[in-house]
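Last lecture ended with a question: if I hand you only a sequence, what can you say about the shape of the protein? Today we answer it with a concrete record. The protein is Transmembrane protein. Below, first the input exactly as provided, then the predicted structure, then a couple of comments.
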Amino acid sequence: MGLSYLGIFHTVIGIIAIIAAFVSLFKSARIDLGKLSGKIYFYFTLFASLTALGLSSVKGVNPGHILALLIIILILTAYYLYAKKPGNNRSRFFENFFLSFSFFLSLLPTVNETFTRVPVGHPLASGPTDPLIGKTLLILFLLFILGSVLQFRRQRKINRLARL
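The predicted structure:
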């Protein structure tokens, strides 16, 4: 596989972040920063994104660095909304969307790296342009859209009930 120590650390904390996101989505239908799984997602995604800035097979800034910075901005903004704008209000819509979008964006390099490295010696995909990667990302994108719509509807219902 040929991973550096930073690459191994990045991969381990990234996997933990993804598992925490799935746990939070399963339990709360959103990544809930008020719960342990949401906090794990936040911190481990932050560290995974920061360590991604130190990983590169080419010199200079590349799309992976831009993606990592975008994820950092999304989760920090979501955390700000969670901490500074408590209660069931419009901020929850943005918080939910930013965390879900950051999770979706985290899956882009995850799918590519996993499919081009596993199983060792006979990877599932030949590279980023492999149709299997494209189809998988399309399915994940459609799930992200569906999940975002369901989260929006759920939050709207929660906000209405809170006003009563």
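Comments.
1. Residues 131-163 form the longest helix (33 residues).
2. The two ends are 57 Å apart (CA to CA).
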